[in-house]
Structures
1.
Amino acid sequence: MTSVDVLVSTTDADVPLPAYSHPGDAGADITARVEVTLAPGERATVPTGLRIALPAGYAAFVHPRSGLAARHGVTIVNAPGTVDAGYRGEIAVTVLNTDPRETVVLRRGDRIAQLVIQRVEHAAFVAVQELPGSHRGEGGFGSTGAAAPGATP
């Protein structure tokens, strides 16, 4: 497995650096810098205390943690969140409590998301009059699965 150097600074000396929990993990855990209480249906933007400098040609993507989602119904509103190579501010995560009944407390130091670092391509967008055909064509949402209720197959 190859690695890429990502420079990291923290807002506080005790903010942990992103860390992989297991060998081969794609996402490095990132934690809450402050305590946040989320009532049912409530969302909040949670600072992580992390600032990063990615090399050109890379981006970081902030993904939800599956355990937090399964146990407490907490997800990320704009998942995955994108951190561009040129961004140098503090990474924050907008979390949402989807549980209809239970309040969730995220404490300082709790793992709230995963940071996935990926190489990205810069596209050259070319305007054309017509696109080439494809097997899928113009089929939209759900077009590769079962027909929508009431639709004629």
2.
Amino acid sequence: MDKIIMQGMKFFGQHGVLHQEKELGQRFEVDLVLELDLAEAAQRDNLAATVSYADVYRVVEEIVTGPPFHLIEAVAGAIARAVLDGFAPVQAVTVRIKKPGAPVPGIFDYVAVEISRRRAG
């Protein structure tokens, strides 16, 4: 299966279990891998034969900057559902959400969740 990869999208959101995470917010980074057949797009050189990166970006942005979730697992799930529901050519999606400012004592680059979802049928 062919892939469209969108890596390092950065947004400010208010997701988290702790009160200060919802009140103050923090940065989230999102990576997506969209699996779809790109043969027609490669042959025809036509946007109508693929998925618009800009449209996918807007969907991700709306979810991450929108109403807060307690868990980044839920954010990732919402993104996966929205991509599969909104972009018919996408057969599978992998979503990685990185939380660089997670309220965990210690030194680390980020905490992340990665989920993969496939279109049913």
3.
Amino acid sequence: MAPPMDGPSDYRQLFVDDADFYNRLLLGTLLPDCVWVPLPRFFQTWLRNYIGGVLVYLLSGFFWCFYIYYWKRNVYVPTDAIPSRKAMLLQISVAMKAMPWYCALPTISEYLAEIGWTKCFPRLNNISWLAFLVYLAIYQIFVEFGIYWMHRELHDIKPLYKYLHATHHVYNKQNTLSPFAGLAFHPLDGILQALPHSIALFIIPVHLTTHLVAIFIEAIWTANIHDCIHAKLWPVMGAGYHTIHHTTYRHNYGHFTIWMDWMFGTLRDPLDDDGGKLM
């Protein structure tokens, strides 16, 4: 895929222009110029990702908790299975401590795209729509595969589980799981599980903005799969499957779909599981 402008430097400038635009859009709206304008672009981008990540996490978590625990009380989740406020505040605390580190990964990815180290392209019209959709499908398959095995090894390699992933698995019952548990990880654990998104950029041509949107969608998705509500949308790896993961520790490592667990023999269906009665 050749640069469509006068040369590689002009092509890479489009990534810089996009970063500047997104930084102005969010930081310029929420912060006085004296706070963020003097910062180097790398730190502006990190600050934008951090504020955006915090907003996505808190707004999606508060909205979903309000809806299922209060507005639809005892409809989706039995009253005695609603997590305590103390449990949810602990999850928020863990996530907020990790959030600055989480946001370093997409920031570094953007910087590497700007200096031409990735296979990213800056504009959708750089390729055909068919090619975009094919690359996007390959990207998602790669991410599914990578997250599955990263998550599985975080369980299978005992030191990784003990020192990293166990932080997340203290939430192992329906009345301790909530949408706020979705990002309540040890910082390195969260980075490792998101790493396939970034590795893909060096292998697969990906529209950089689409990659960033996928990262933020993932933050919303993790809230959804920790609400203990089994939506029964095959082949989606919904909360019914993921709750089993939190109770058995040995099944349903996948992220968006059940396909990787099906392929590698770790799938456990909520409808065939006694734990499914809790959903």
